[in-house]
Amino acid sequence: MVEKKKSAYAASGVDIDVKMGAVGAIKQMVAATKTPNVIGNIGAFGGLHKVPKGKDMILVASSDGVGTKLKVAAMMNKHDTVGQDIVNHCVNDILVQGAQPLFFMDYVGTSKVDPEQFKAVVSGLCKACKENKMALLGGETAEMPGLYPAGEYDLVGTIVGCVSKSKLITGKSIRAGDVILGFPSGGLQTNGFSLARRVVFDLCQYSWKDKLPGTNQTFGDALLAVHKSFLKPVTKLMDRKVKINGMAHITGGGFLDNIPRVLPKCVNAEIDRSTWEVPTIFKFIQNQGKVDVEEMYRVFNMGIGFVLIIAKKDLKKAEQALKSIHQPYNVIGVIRKGKGVVTYKN
Question: Alpha helix locations (H) across the chain?
Fold first, then answer.
């Protein structure tokens, strides 16, 4: 029997056979996300997708990463939820402009491919892609020993969606008197984890297995809670002919930096912080980390993951539509004359 010659590349830290085996193992999962507009199968140099029909269709694209939430995933050895996080995050980013997702592409960079870890990440990507009715069209998996710490990886995603020019939402129709609705987040979403980890694990010396005081949740579960997609409730409002004047995905920068991205310069968004209960995990970080309340609202979403701005006359119709699908919401503010900034009532 001829002994297989040891690969010099594998000896340097990159095993092509292991990587290709891991990629081959996830092909069936990825194929399950295929939509009618996908052409061909995974494995080609480029993913193929039909161009949306309609003369006025606009493509909308966005890229983002999971950030240091991946440190918590590594700590817990739980990797399926971060795949959902990045897909849902990107869906919400293009949803702000009224776009429906078409396809998603991922990038995983690591020191060495761990087949089981990789499979778990992709399972999360596939789950969220199917829930958002789009295809996982392809991606890149790169082994770079020396660049990434052993056992850790980076996860980045790119989404492409479309919206007709007549339905593009830019915020230009926002007027004084409009109301602001807020959808609850599932937790930190994908922002503020450097501060959260410092407070929980470094300052307070808790383990991810310890219970978050005042809850039945572990710190691990609270921090790793999946970033929600808000595609379903927003689509429901559109189907019910509720005119949405503007939307904002509350990510890094909180209300102060994200809502002004869609505000005309002649109005302000006044947020009433007494209209919802801030989740326990945020209160813990604020109290134990001695973080100023204004900084908390700049770093974190504080329990509101997505906001919509609609005319006051459409509020009842919107509420009926959201209640019909059991989507929780709060009326969290109002649009007033101003200079294109966010103010707080409380």
Answer: 8-11, 16-25, 27-31, 69-76, 80-95, 115-131, 193-197, 219-223, 231-239, 254-258, 280-289, 293-299, 315-324
Report the interhelical angle of 80-95 vs 115-131 (nearest 10°): 30
* Single-letter residue type at 134: M
Q: How far apart are CA 268 and CA 272, in angstroms?
A: 13
Query: pLDDT class for 43, splitting at 50, 70, 90?
Result: low
Contact 128/66 with Cβ under 8 angstroms? no
Is the model's pLDDT at 96 over the cut of 60? yes
CA distance 97 to 63: 15
DSSP 175: -
pLDDT tens-digit series, residues 142-182: 999 888 888 889 999 999 999 999 999 999 999 999 999 99
DSSP class of 202: I
Tens of pLDDT, residue by residue over 207-241, are 999 999 999 999 999 999 999 999 999 999 999 99
Rounded to a whole number, what is the distance in angstroms from the first to the last CA of the chain?
A: 77
